[in-house]
Amino acid sequence: MSSRTGTSGQGSNYEYVIARVRARSASLFDDDDYRKLVRMGTGEIARFMEETEYETEMNALGSRYDGVDLVEYALNRNLAKHFDDLLRWSEGALYDYIARYLRKFDVWNVKTVIRGLYSDAERTEVEDDLIRAGEFADRRIEDLLNAGSIEEVVEQLDDTIFGESLAEAFDVYEESGVLVPLENALDRAFYETLLSGLPDNPEVDSPTGLYVEFLETEVDFRNLRNALRLARSGADIDPSEYFIEGGQLFDAQEVAQLSTNLDQLVSAVRESKYGEDLDQALSALEEADNLIDFERALDAALLEYADRLSNRYPLSVCPVLSYVLAKEREVDNIRAIARGREAGLGPDEVEQELVIL
């Protein structure tokens, strides 16, 4: 990543970047495209993608890969290209906002490497799932892929924003033998660093204020997801260990209390500013008692929330962040379709795995 940074809207080229983003958004798959894809075999999916904006990647990789492998490599390469373009186009504070947010892919890549080591996966399998769209240089990613143990991964990240949290979590991992402490440490370090250094009470309609509002909402949804998982697990875990600072919906004490009672947790969310956005999802959770469906509904609600901010503040960072989420959703959906069809799942089964608005 380049070192162009800033702390306010000054020097940012919002008009230019947002015009480019609007053009890119127009080529995203829509729900009709997904409904076509779930009825195709993997070969048909690949051919369909060759006629879309994934054509360049599909053609470049087609001589080396086929089937689901070709689709996945093309998806990851295309995603990284688009997000690199965002950084290349942006200046000033806008660049800083986007660069901070794209560190989420560093989190994804570290989790992928750790999970691979934990399950003794082949290096090629791990590398297939990496998305090179974050801040880590290729050399660091290669070093992580070459690590012989989870402890070595933790040591390699000592000089990053994840170093301190991972070191503390590694001790817990050694005692418990489960990855949750390490993965949670990565999430907390990412979100808390994302919000650090930004004003506590920025003007609501200012560039920084809108950025903070979006990030606070994402932190709230992450905390809600974690709280629900704990409430449903019945495990003897201190919820405060999973709490991420920076949101507005809960504080650590409230999470600890509500995580022990699903009904109270649902009621608290209904009464919050997200109640209307999540009403349908909460009803589905209560009726179906299905956390996976609720988590997909949370993802859809965050996308819709980002879209509303984008439409309300068209010359701000909001359209850019909305596009990042929408592009992620597209890649996740296509990947789920390709994997599901290869595994022999029927169209309706695959469609249930998708985030559709």
TrEMBL record:
Keyword vocabulary terms for this entry = ATP synthesis, Cell membrane, Hydrogen ion transport, Ion transport, Membrane, Transport
The record's SUPFAM superfamilies line, in alphabetical order, gives:
V-type ATP synthase subunit C (SSF103486)
Q: Please provide, in alphabetical order, the Gene Ontology terms of the cellular component aspect for this entry.
A: plasma membrane; proton-transporting V-type ATPase, V0 domain
Pfam families from the UniProt entry: vATP-synt_AC39 (PF01992)
Transport keyword on record: yes
- UniProt cross-references to Gene3D superfamilies, sorted A to Z: ATP synthase (C/AC39) subunit, domain 3 (1.10.132.50), V-type ATP synthase subunit C domain (1.20.1690.10)
Task: Tell me where on the tree of life, at the top rank, the source sits.
Answer: Archaea
Q: State where the protein is found.
A: Cell membrane
Give the main localization category. membrane
The biological processes this protein is annotated with in GO are:
proton motive force-driven plasma membrane ATP synthesis
> Any idea which GO molecular function terms this record carries?
ATP binding; proton-transporting ATP synthase activity, rotational mechanism; proton-transporting ATPase activity, rotational mechanism
- Which membrane topology term applies here? Peripheral membrane protein
The answer to keyword Transport applying to this record is: yes
General function of this protein: Component of the A-type ATP synthase that produces ATP from ADP in the presence of a proton gradient across the membrane.
Which PANTHER family does its entry note? Answer: V-TYPE ATP SYNTHASE SUBUNIT C (PTHR38682)
Give the quaternary structure: Has multiple subunits with at least A(3), B(3), C, D, E, F, H, I and proteolipid K(x).
The similarity annotation says: Belongs to the V-ATPase V0D/AC39 subunit family.
Q: What is this protein called?
A: A-type ATP synthase subunit C
Lineage, highest ranks first: Archaea, Methanobacteriati, Methanobacteriota, Stenosarchaea group, Halobacteria
Q: What gene is it encoded by?
A: atpC
